Amino acid sequence: MSQQAAPMLDTEQMAQFEKLGYLVLPAFLPPALVARLEPEVDHWVDSGLRTDSIEACRDPESLRPPSVMEIELPAHGELVAHPPLMWLLDQLMGNDFVFHHLHSARLAPDAPGKSWHHDYERPAGRGRSHLMVHALHYLGGLDASQGGLALLPGSHQEQAEKAARARFGCAELPGEVLVDDLPPGSTVLIHSALFHTRRPPRVAGPAAGGPRYMVDGSYCQTGVRWQPVKPYWRQMLARARVLGLDHGKWPELFADHHFTEYAVPA
């Protein structure tokens, strides 16, 4: 690991995240890490590993992990506990936090959008008492032709179900913020309860540009037990501990006592 200065959030950034529910960090990831992540995403998609991962989640009773998990790809494993990201999460969480899951994808230029939703997993019996954060890493950045990421500032303060705004599809909503101009290696941190949507490309055909590379990871404040989203979550955390992905610095990052048992989503 290269030595990097710990990034510090100023008072305005902390207030923005608390009030609006997001922070945009242009070119947050070092180019060397991005250069290693993109071919790993290509391998993840083209080799069928991503499909295997999805199929493992569709058979929750077997508890069978896929042949390879995202965290076992070297650059992906490094990204999970990227020190500058850990330092920022430490400031936002205010105490220890635990890794929840990682998703990696490469979307074609003509890929459809994803309806308005949020990704907050309710802690067992505690409502919204604790913070969950998603880190959305755009390896190739974003440009206007790709449709972009739309956010609904302040919506994380609502007590709403994940699909409460799904009826709007990917439509523009009053008060939204559109993020569609980011350089490679940019990261958007969002409160996991913030409503957001992935817009379909504005331009079809060759003018739509290249594929969208995105890796998103999520993290939760400790102090409550969280619902896992992958049936093989125990194997995932155990593998992360064996690989030493926490670098010996964040002992709670892959501790499984912060989770309930897996339950099939309704």
What does this molecule look like?
It is globular, with a radius of gyration of 18 Å. Helix content is 24%, strand content 19%. It has helices at residues 11-20, 31-46, 49-58, 74-80, 83-93, 233-243; strands at residues 22-25, 97-107, 114-117, 132-138, 149-151, 177-179, 186-191, 196-198, 212-221. The longest helix is centred in the N-terminal third of the chain and has 16 residues, at 31-46. α2 (31-46) crosses α4 (74-80). The model has no long low-confidence stretch (mean pLDDT 90). It is of the alpha+beta class and 266 residues long. The strands form 2 sheets. It has a 5-stranded antiparallel sheet. The chain has one domain (12-258): Jelly Rolls, CATH 2.60.120.620.
Topology:
Layout: H1 11-20, E1 22-25, H2 31-46, H3 49-58, H4 74-80, H5 83-93, E2 97-107, E3 114-117, E4 132-138, E5 149-151, E6 177-179, E7 186-191, E8 196-198, E9 212-221, H6 233-243
Antiparallel strand pairs: 1-7, 2-9, 3-8, 4-7, 4-9, 5-6, 5-8
Helix pairs in contact: 2-4
